[in-house]
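User: Hi! Is it possible to get a structure for several chains at once, not just one? Here's what I have:
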Amino acid sequence: MLRYIIYIILLLITLFFDTALGAHRVPVFTLILCVIVIIYEFISPYIYTSR
Amino acid sequence: MTYLSDKKRKKRGYIWYSVVILLIFIFVYFWPSVRTFLYNYVEGPVIIYGSTRTGIVSIPYNVSTYFKSKKDLEDINRGLELNIERLENEIAVKDAIISDNKLSQNGSSVSTLEMYSILEDSTNIYSTIILSKGFKDGLEINKLVYLRGRQPVCIIVEVHDQTSVCKLLSSSGSFIEGVSPNGETLFLKGDGGGTFIADIPRDAILNEGDSVHLKSDPTLLLGTVVSIVKDNQATAWKVYVRGQYNPITSNVFYTDK
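Assistant: Yes, the chains can be modeled jointly so their relative placement is included. Here is the combined structure:
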């Protein structure tokens, strides 16, 4: 649950910078964040963590 | 270790990823209008951040300016004003090119020669000016001299080694042809100073505030109509056009190289 809250906060931050810094055509920071989140969510079940 | 198949869960995962990716594509597609909407809320913090940052970054410059002499500050100011005038000239050229939709012989930029008024001829007040450039700088007789924003004011009549004499277009008794916004030719008579007078037919379409351009080069603004005197007993209306020349404020003059 905490993970999703962090994702939303990061999304708001990237949206702010995309809006303020004038990304007219593509929200670059938001896209980069989405790609990183998707890749992380996809591979995280396969990350082996020893306890 | 478990032998249970996890296929259902994996299938849900793939569907979930597809939905997310689709949502991202839709968001990116509509981003320009979304951004316009979001910017209304973001503008406040951006302005605060920008002004704070500018204030901090300009501290060294403000401190150094405080210790500069008045002469240095005036020189810097003068340099900046000349820069503004040079840029205004370039903008006027580019505007003319855009409106005419054609290139000048030199391409899209014109280089100019900068000159200063040394003094006005006191025997013919508001008639001639003596400029600070001459034969050595490539000036020729009959060259048009203009103010900032390519507004012609005088024509060179004498060229000496390092100075030249420029006769004002608006000098008393001289004539010049202008063109109104409707394309009608105006025969402007110089009234001394920076003013012209012209007679126009009673049915001519001309209003106060209209711009009058030079007929020989319609990219050059000659002046603005300030008054139209409509005397019903006269055969023509009298039009007063104010040119750009002002002996107090007009200091820097330009001509095309």
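Chain B touches chain A through 14 residues (CB under 8 Å). The first helix of chain B runs from residue 7 to 29.

User: Great, thank you!
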